[in-house]
């Protein structure tokens, strides 16, 4: 098992030796924890005979939803990432009570995936009442939806339990204009390394963002009064048409595709990395990957080969999915993903 992991982790053949060493050494350590993701289990609900077909029910609902609306892949991916990165994968992102619940603090709206999670939960409560956590549903649904969009599937170990507080003090999703150094430190604080960061940012291969997240790049980069010099001038002109400078209060804040090449198809491909390589990334943080020592090498590697990106995707998603999970007697199994059982108005 160990050597298999090592092979997987050193799949970046074209990297300079020093980079390979530094990345792979760190990666092998981390990959070891992926072998036994904390206390989660492979097919937990089947194994414990509590809800044998839980994963099939989830996949069925995701399939149906995706066939109506491809954007569900990007939405579920964002939901799953934010849940794990904000407080750990405990579904606290779904709690709606309290003035400072995570969900109200998230910069990006577009949490349409929430509705699908509720639908899946309703089905599971009918089939296997009180058994399957919202936290597991989020991770399983995101895996299946993004797979339909073209990403590899990967094992989602299960047995997570749901958090009972919406720990708002740790809401800290960084702005898309964050510096590369700060982004690296942020991922590191979550136990994720540079390879994970470059890989997980690949989520921006699909989906949309608000113009306000790029207006600094288009109109006033770092207070210079000029566009970001690292943005391809043609792209910059195109984006300015879609995101007119906001001069009046109450002026709209349109949505633009994070990767115009994937656009309305919501395709999961390596085109995101190709666009970074020729200065055509939409978000500032994405473009900066081309200007960091290790991030540049990884970006070039992914741009030239979808396979490497796919393998890394499976590993990094799996690692992100085990951040601060609750298991055993921790937390609870929520009956409605929006409320802790104590605060659930339907249980009163
Ligand atoms: C979901 O769709 C995929 C791809 O079409 C298919 O392989 C899978 O069997 C479907 N799953 C369910 C539960 O319908
Ligand atoms: C859970 O709560 C939400 C928000 O109030 C509600 O819309 C939904 O119907 C509830 N779901 C179930 C299964 O009770
Ligand atoms: C650009 O930003 C700087 C610093 O925030 C500000 O002082 C300046 O007025 C802005 N320039 C324009 C043209 O908006
Ligand atoms: C993107 O998705 C569309 C529609 O599903 C498909 O026709 C197209 O071939 C895909 N492109 C890539 C690069 O995968
Ligand atoms: C950058 O690369 C993308 C993907 O290969 C391509 O579609 C786009 O035209 C390129 N842009 C420039 C300015 O070369
Ligand atoms: C990149 O490497 C150079 C030379 O080793 C170093 O001075 C610089 O701080 C590094 N930059 C980053 C972002 O790590």
Automatic annotation (TrEMBL):
Alphabetical list of Pfam families matching this protein: peroxidase
Binding annotation for heme b: 204
Residues of the site described as Transition state stabilizer: 78
Protein name per Swiss-Prot or TrEMBL: Peroxidase
Binding positions (substrate): 174
Positions with a binding annotation for Ca(2+) 2: 205
Plant heme peroxidase family profile domain sequence ranges: 39-341
Family: Belongs to the peroxidase family. Classical plant (class III) peroxidase subfamily. Belongs to the peroxidase family. Ascorbate peroxidase subfamily.
Catalytic activity: 2 a phenolic donor + H2O2 = 2 a phenolic radical donor + 2 H2O
Role noted for this protein: Removal of H(2)O(2), oxidation of toxic reductants, biosynthesis and degradation of lignin, suberization, auxin catabolism, response to environmental stresses such as wounding, pathogen attack and oxidative stress.
Annotated signal peptide: 1-30
Major enzyme class: oxidoreductase
Organism of provenance: Morus notabilis
Cofactor(s) the protein needs: Ca(2+); heme b
Annotated Ca(2+) 1 binding sites: 83, 86, 88, 90, 92, 102
EC number(s) per entry: 1.11.1.7
Gene Ontology terms describing biological process: hydrogen peroxide catabolic process; response to oxidative stress
Entries under PANTHER family matching the protein: PEROXIDASE 16-RELATED, PTHR31517
Gene Ontology MF terms: heme binding; lactoperoxidase activity; metal ion binding
Organism phylogeny: Eukaryota, Viridiplantae, Streptophyta, Embryophyta, Tracheophyta
Subcellular localization, as worded in the UniProt entry: Secreted
CDD domains: secretory_peroxidase
Keyword Signal found: yes
């Amino acid at each position: 098992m160990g050597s298999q992991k090592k092979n997987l982790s050193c799949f970046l053949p074209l990297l300079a030796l020093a980079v390979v060493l530094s990345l792979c050494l760190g990666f092998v350590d981390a990959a070891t924890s992926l072998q036994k993701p904390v206390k989660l289990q492979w097919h937990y609900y089947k194994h414990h005979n509590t809800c044998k077909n839980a994963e099939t029910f989830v996949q069925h609902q995701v399939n149906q939803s995706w066939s109506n609306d491809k954007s569900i892949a990007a939405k579920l991916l964002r939901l799953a990432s934010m849940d794990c990165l904000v407080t750990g994968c405990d579904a606290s992102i779904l709690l709606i009570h309290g003035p400072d619940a995570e969900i109200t603090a998230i910069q990006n709206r577009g949490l349409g995936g929430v509705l699908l999670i509720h639908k899946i939960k309703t089905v599971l409560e009918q089939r296997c009442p009180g058994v399957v956590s919202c936290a597991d549903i989020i991770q399983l649904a995101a895996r299946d939806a993004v797979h339909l969009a073209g990403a590899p599937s990967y094992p989602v170990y299960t047995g997570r339990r749901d958090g009972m507080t919406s720990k708002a003090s740790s809401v800290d999703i960084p702005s898309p204009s964050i510096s590369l150094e700060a982004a690296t430190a942020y991922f590191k604080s979550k136990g994720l390394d540079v390879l994970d960061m470059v890989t997980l940012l690949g989520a921006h291969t699909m989906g949309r963002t608000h113009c306000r997240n790029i207006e600094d790049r288009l109109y006033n980069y770092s207070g210079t009064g000029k566009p970001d010099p690292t943005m391809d001038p043609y792209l910059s002109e195109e984006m300015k048409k879609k995101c007119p400078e906001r001069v009046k209060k109450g002026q709209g804040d349109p949505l633009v595709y994070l990767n115009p090449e994937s656009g309305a198809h919501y395709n999961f491909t390596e085109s995101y990395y190709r666009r970074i390589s020729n200065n055509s990334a939409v978000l500032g943080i994405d473009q900066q990957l081309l200007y960091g020592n290790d991030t540049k090498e990884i970006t070039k590697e992914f741009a030239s080969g979808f396979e490497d990106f796919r393998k890394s995707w499976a590993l990094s998603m799996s690692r992100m999915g085990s951040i601060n999970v609750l298991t055993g007697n921790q937390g609870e199994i929520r009956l409605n993903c929006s409320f802790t059982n104590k605060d659930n108005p339907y249980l009163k």
